[in-house]
Each structure stands twice: as structure tokens, then as C-alpha cells.
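Priority: medium. Attachment 1 of 2:
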């Protein structure tokens, strides 16, 4: 099974948890070049789950939401799911 055409936000979630992608790879006993190779195209479900486990998050948090939606965090960087993106106040 593959995540066809989905965009991931692994770097952002890792940064939120205080990790670089290189540090994340170390946690997964994987080299960064190998990680990069496996993430090209459509990564396998097992890899995405392994990343989520290493980051201590859900797979949903790693998926870029559709337009008009955003991931919701509180001030302590605790994840609360996906919700509607607030309207921008640009004039």
C-alpha cells in the first residue's frame, strides 16, 4: 500500500519536536541518504509509520492537509488534529 500523491510535512514535525532530519534518521537506525531515497515518489506505509513512531506522533500529523485546513497545536506544541485554516486578515 502506498500514499499516492500525498505530501508530507516530516521536516516541520521533526523541527517542532527539536530534531533535524539527520537526527530523526539516527533514531530510526537509517542513513539520511537511504531515508531520502525511500521518501522519493510514494513512500511505503511502513516507513511513514516508522517515522511517526520515532517522532512520537500520529501518521495524520505527518500528512500535509488539503487547502483550507491546517494542523492545530496549542502553545505547548501539543498536537490537536486538523481543523479549518483561519481566514487571513490581509487587505
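Attachment 2 of 2:
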Amino acid at each position: 500500500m502506498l500514499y499516492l500523491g500525498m505530501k508530507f510535512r516530516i521536516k516541520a514535525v521533526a523541527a517542532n519536536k527539536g530534531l533535524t532530519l539527520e537526527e530523526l534518521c539516527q533514531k530510526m537506525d537509517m542513513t539520511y541518504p537511504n531515508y531520502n531515497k525511500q521518501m522519493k515518489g510514494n513512500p511505503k506505509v511502513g516507513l511513514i509509520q516508522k517515522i511517526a513512531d520515532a517522532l512520537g506522533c500520529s501518521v495524520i500529523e505527518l500528512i500535509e492537509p488539503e487547502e483550507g485546513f491546517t494542523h492545530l497545536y496549542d502553545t505547548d506544541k501539543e498536537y490537536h488534529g486538523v481543523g479549518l485554516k483561519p481566514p487571513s486578515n490581509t487587505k
